[in-house]
Amino acid sequence: MREATERRQSKETDIQVSLNLNGAGQAEVSTGIGFFDHMLTAFVVHGGFNAGIKTVGDLAVDCHHTIEDTGIVLGRAFAKALGDKSGIMRYGSFYIPMDESLAFASVDISGRPYLVFDCPFSGERMGEMETAMVEEFFRAFAFNAGITLHIRLLYGTNDHHKCEAIFKAVAHSLKIALQQNGKPVLSTKGLLD
């Protein structure tokens, strides 16, 4: 189980996501934004799930709708694949070094969406992706997946390295939190929402 497909169509984007949380890190990603494809592929591979992500967006305007809406649909697929969240570790935290950069991520698959994003970038873009969109992607993902997500960039100078460390740190923290422990929902309330 732990699989989901999700599609969202609007006047700005058309997005299809297929997700298997019990995968082996296989990614098929096409968003029209090369650097974003690179980050999503790293996210899937390091998270250890399988995902197909196909986004057609209004890139003639800019990258905003394409990236934010992909976060929305990917988050919804995660929420659907998780079901009632029973039998998972729930929490995960991880540090990732990427050359001179170091990023940290911590996740609670809680059903209570929240994002803390403390990651300064020095430039305006990486390829065709605006650096400001990294936070927008993770906000859309966290709120639609129903998770609490804290991300902090401890240091770094190269924006590519910073961003890649962030995506990989989130992926590894999710990988830990998604591990199955065969126990009921990890909550004193008996449910996660």
UniProtKB/TrEMBL annotation:
Domain of life the protein comes from: Bacteria
Reaction equation(s) it catalyzes: D-erythro-1-(imidazol-4-yl)glycerol 3-phosphate = 3-(imidazol-4-yl)-2-oxopropyl phosphate + H2O
Pfam families the record matches: IGPD
Any one of the GO BP annotations: L-histidine biosynthetic process
NCBIfam families registered for this protein in UniProt: PRK00951.2-1 (NF002111), PRK00951.2-4 (NF002114)
Entry keyword set: Amino-acid biosynthesis, Cytoplasm, Histidine biosynthesis, Lyase
Pathway: Amino-acid biosynthesis; L-histidine biosynthesis; L-histidine from 5-phospho-alpha-D-ribose 1-diphosphate: step 6/9
UniProt-annotated location(s): Cytoplasm
Single GO term (MF): imidazoleglycerol-phosphate dehydratase activity
Signal peptide (residue range): none
Entry GO terms, CC: cytoplasm
EC nos: 4.2.1.19
Gene: hisB
UniProt enzyme class: lyase
Keyword Coiled coil assigned: no
Family the UniProt entry places it in: Belongs to the imidazoleglycerol-phosphate dehydratase family.
Name of the protein: Imidazoleglycerol-phosphate dehydratase
